[in-house]
Amino acid sequence: MSLPSIRRPQSVSAAREGWHGWDDYAQFYDWESAQTVQRRDVGFWQRLAARIGGPVIELGCGTGRVSLPVARTVEMVVGVDRSSEMLDRARSRLRRSRYGPRVKLVRGDIRALPVLDSGPFRLAMAPYGILQSLLRDRDLRETLCSVAGVLQRGGTFGIDLVPELPTWGEYQRRVSLRARRGSRGGQLTLIESVRQDRDRGITTFDQEFVERKGARRSSHQFSIAFRTLSIRKMRNRLERAGFDIEAVLGDYRGRAWDSRAQAWIILARRR
Ligand SMILES: C[S@@+](CC[C@H](N)C(=O)[O-])C[C@H]1O[C@@H](n2cnc3c(N)ncnc32)[C@H](O)[C@@H]1O
């Protein structure tokens, strides 16, 4: 009896760094997030920014899904991302909006934020699990230190973590999404495998996007990886980096966190 062969994308071993894979992901990101996260966190970030005021910095702004709506509520948002492909998409989104001029995009690594003219910031936003793209403790330490360096004293650091990643079941090549892309696009299918490294707390998604348009078929494969720390450990890392914890929330409307919460949101204040 032969075991079924397990096809792994060539880039699997390339997900050694949390920023790997995002350039490849960029052309599919908005299509996928429209069907998954949608805009459920956006109002939360808009309300927080309106309460605290700008200037605001977003870590890992990607295609501008959060930065642009936040720019409706404050006059200056700086979005930092390492992926030039994601930033290209953010740029075209900004061009289509009257609030676009309020957003400045900067290519950079959140572990070593560049000195930015618009800072120091009143609010740093880390939406949709961006801190889980830091695969080693050292990466997290450097990022927290870097954020403390660009925030005003008393400034707020808002962090949204994706809680379900460590409990995600492992599977091989499952069709997890299938839909048309836009009116002129083809049929897009996402075939996904999930691996868990429980010792390191790392969840890896091996993704293959297959597009069929008429007789043409194209395939794009890449891997992205995330590391999840418990709320307790994250609080501890923040406190060591010079932040006081202001609140831990369990949803986007402000309910207090508990161990079954569907969202893990930490609001910390720079000492
Ligand atoms: C989950 S996406 C989030 C994008 C956007 N914040 C949103 O909510 O739609 C994560 C983004 O973080 C970026 N990223 C990952 N590691 C990074 C790093 N070390 N420095 C800067 N950007 C990073 C990726 O390029 C990607 O655009």
Give the helices and strands, then pairings.
Layout: H1 22-35, H2 42-52, E1 56-59, H3 67-70, E2 77-81, H4 84-95, E3 103-107, E4 121-126, H5 137-150, E5 151-161, E6 171-180, E7 187-197, E8 202-213, E9 216-227, H6 231-240, E10 243-249, E11 264-270
Parallel strand pairs: 1-2, 1-4, 2-3, 4-5
Antiparallel strand pairs: 5-11, 6-7, 7-8, 8-9, 10-11
The structure holds S-adenosylmethionine (SAM).
Protein name: Methyltransferase domain-containing protein
GO molecular function, one term: methyltransferase activity
Domain Methyltransferase: 56-155
In summary, what is this structure?
With 271 residues, this protein is α/β, with parallel strands linked by helices.
Specify the biggest β-sheet: 7 strands, mixed
First-to-last CA distance: 63 Å
Spans where pLDDT lies below 50 across 5 or more residues = 1-14
Mean pLDDT: 92
Helix and strand composition category: alpha/beta
Radius of gyration: 19 Å
Give every kind of bound small molecule, once each: S-adenosylmethionine
Please give the domain count: 2
- DSSP helix fraction: 10-25%
Any guess at the CATH architecture of the largest domain? 3-Layer(aba) Sandwich
In which order are the strands of the major sheet placed?
3-2-1-4-5-11-10
Shape call? globular
Q: How many E strands?
A: 11
Query: What's the CATH C level of the largest domain?
Result: Alpha Beta
The CATH superfamily of the largest domain is identified as Vaccinia Virus protein VP39
Descriptors:
Rossmann fold, globular, 24% helix, 4-stranded antiparallel β-sheet, alpha/beta, binds S-adenosylmethionine, 7-stranded mixed β-sheet, single chain
